[in-house]
Amino acid sequence: MSYTFCDSAVYAFMFNLTPCSIMNQAAWKASLTWIPGSDISFLNVIFKVWYDGAKALYWKEALCRGVDDKYAVCGMLKGETIATTFDIKGARTKFPKGNYNIILEGFSDDSEHNMVICLNFTMIVKQDPF
User: Fold this and answer.
1) Which of 17, 33, 106, 121 has the most CB atoms around its CB within 10 Å?
2) At residue 122, does pLDDT exceed 70?
């Protein structure tokens, strides 16, 4: 899995997922370091997935709403650093063999005009899980 930024903004961002092979793994370790370029009192994310060129998933969620937020990034101020590791556990999607393009966009407003992050992930699954 690799990623690039999908807009012209410069981000202080790093994401790492281990193990590299995700087949038959009950838990993955993720590491995230990010210095947002604006305050994060509201964070709306849009997650788009394409599989071998065809749109496979569209998911939109408000992660931070300004009250009773459960994510560490919520409430961060511009220039603060988040550096965290976390486990990703639970039911897994069995990804068919192929190429996946994943776009993750984050907005600090409801109108989706104030983009705070935009990432373009590439995931190549080399072996069918079936």
Assistant:
1) 106
2) yes
